[in-house]
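Supplementary Text 2. Reproducibility record for the structural model of the 312-residue chain.

All settings were left at their defaults, and a single model was retained for analysis rather than an ensemble. We include the record here because the model underlies the residue-level annotations in Supplementary Table 4.
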Amino acid sequence: MARLLDTYASTDVGRKRGHNEDFFYASDELGVYVVADGMGGHAAGEVASHKAVSAISAFVRNVKEDEGLTWPFGLDRNLSDEENLIVTAIKIANNEISAMAEERLEYHGMGTTVACLIFPESEMETEAIVAHVGDSRAYRMREGILEQLTDDHSWVNEQIARNIITEEEARNHRWRNVITRALGNRQSVDVDLTRCQILPGDMYMLCSDGLSSMVTNDDIGRSMRELANKSAKEITRTLINNANDAGGHDNITVLVVKVLDDKGEFAWEPHQAWMREETAPPGSLQVQDIAPSSRPDEAQPSGASEPGKGDI
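Retained model, structure tokens:
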């Protein structure tokens, strides 16, 4: 029996930018979800993010359709099949973006972040894989508790880890947009992986930094919790609206996947921790860090989708 999901994704140009350099891909059929945030200017960032999602989704689909397909890189015996699959797909995307940047002057210096979520084909397999490069993020909400599953590859995050600056200082720092790892800026790339147990009632969310740079984790968690019984579409749109209401300084992409039970319902029980939110210090309860196309404006995937801009 296929895993039952409620999936929706959307991207918005924001309030300050002239064009959108984010792209996404979502396929319940393949169990693959990708958000990419391009950089490079003069539309090069848009090219990089689109190439990332198209290369990643194409390789995953080709492997699932042809088990005898030759892989361009050796397998890491310390990784699962699904982990090797997504790491290889990301490496292919990196190589293709790097080659394009070398071949065309207008693409020189382009790159993209990427955050991926991959579900196993069989419902009997209970671990999802999160893979990321850069500062696009993945979250999971369980029992009303929001967990950040990725660790930003950014200059300000490195300073936070060293206790040099605070998270609030990082939000407004002049170097907050400096990325320390991305696809396309070198021939090899390191991919961070996180394994996550899948349970009915879980809600996964991928986003570009157009959301996370404008809205705190506490506020993201609060909105997702308040709307937990609403559709993935409503949750996605609300989060994008929140980022725009906060200023919308960057392109905003949000992708939400809700794991339903065998009756097709999103059943969850609140954790006692967030019920004490009113008396707890900000950020102490509901957020936990566990990490170390056609351009349709909207779509709700029942199977595969094209790399998207707008909503899916």
